[in-house]
Design a protein that fits this description.
mainly beta, Neuraminidase
Length: 327
């Protein structure tokens, strides 16, 4: 009890002493119609088109028609081959199988990204696997060395149901993939293509991190919550992390995962009319580009304070001086 009380005081003191993060400026918000399963859980900018996935749909992804304020999700069917064994233990796999009957979506797609050749990559949280979609539409699971999962679990990640891989990013050449482990512990991993197999180059784990952090002061009844990652975006050689419970986007060194700078979006996301009844963050999708950031909300079909029930994508302006500015 005393230890927990001391930790709470330390978190509060640290929060009070820290300089407030610069706030991103909201430019627009777009409800999304047409997602069969709702639950927008990833976002990618491929050329000039935005694409998204739902963690309830195993057989389709979505191209977004962004011509109006309300965006339309256009269905693109995919033929997914059987999932390979990633090395997750039987207990996690069995819970995934049971959950698929309750909520739908055995594959639990949680992130999408693309390379300069037009290949798209979708991460399956439930199977810790990555599906590659060629420009022709054909789908194949990447051959990922089981060492990746072993290293992640040895570092304390991928131990809990529904807390596995939550996002991914790929470099333009399509030979490096970063993966984000969601929480308890959260972490960042890097795998590289070596001929036909994706493997660790000296080690997969860039970051493994436990602990709590305070929610932003705009959150009603703010409390200390688990550190988490909800998505990744690679821009100009830097890795950007969507940190859902902290309502922030952070720029990190892509080789070491070291934090370089963070920006908050809490002031806009937690305005009273935009609040959801959940006492945690709901953002799950991130794309960073030169002009700003797209951030998507997975509202689990629940309504926010103004009654909006559709998934939402926000457009934030890039910070003054751009994303590469110094602290």
């Amino acid at each position: 009890m005393r230890r927990g009380f001391a930790l709470a005081l330390l978190l509060l003191a640290t929060s009070a002493m820290a300089d407030p993060l610069p706030e991103l400026r909201l430019l627009a918000e777009h409800p999304v119609d047409g997602m069969r399963g709702g639950n927008l859980s990833g976002l990618a900018l491929c050329g000039k088109e935005l694409w998204t996935v739902s963690d309830r749909d195993d057989d389709q992804i979505y191209r977004l028609d962004t011509s109006d304020r309300v965006w339309q999700a256009e269905t693109v069917r995919i033929d997914v081959p059987p999932v390979p064994d990633s090395g997750l233990p039987w207990g996690l796999n069995s819970r995934t199988w049971v959950a698929s009957f309750v909520r739908g979506g055995d594959l639990d797609f949680e992130g999408i990204t693309c390379d300069s050749a037009g290949n798209k990559y979708v991460v399956s949280e439930s199977h810790a696997a990555v599906l590659q979609l060629a420009p022709t539409g054909s789908a194949a699971w990447l051959k990922i060395s089981p060492i990746m999962v072993r290293e992640a679990r040895a570092s304390g990640m991928l131990l809990h149901f529904n807390a596995l891989f939550e996002g991914l990013a790929v470099n333009p050449a399509g030979d490096k993939i970063w993966l984000a482990a969601e929480r308890e512990r959260r972490g960042l991993l890097l795998i590289k293509r070596q001929q036909s197999v994706w493997d660790c180059d000296g080690g997969c784990v860039l970051l493994s991190e436990a602990g709590l952090e305070m929610q932003p002061p705009q959150m009603p009844k703010a409390k200390a919550v688990s550190r988490d990652f909800a998505d990744l975006s690679l821009f100009e050689g830097k890795l950007f992390t969507l940190e859902r419970n902290a309502f922030q986007v952070c720029r990190r060194d892509a080789s070491t995962a070291k934090v370089e700078r963070c920006w908050s979006f809490a002031a806009e996301a937690l305005q009273e009319h935009r609040r959801y009844p959940q006492d945690y963050g709901l953002t799950e999708a991130l794309v960073v580009d030169a002009e700003g950031a797209w951030i998507g909300v997975d509202n689990n079909t629940g309504a926010r304070a103004d009654g909006e029930k559709r998934p939402i994508i926000w457009r934030f302006a890039a910070p003054e001086g751009g994303w590469g500015g110094k602290p």
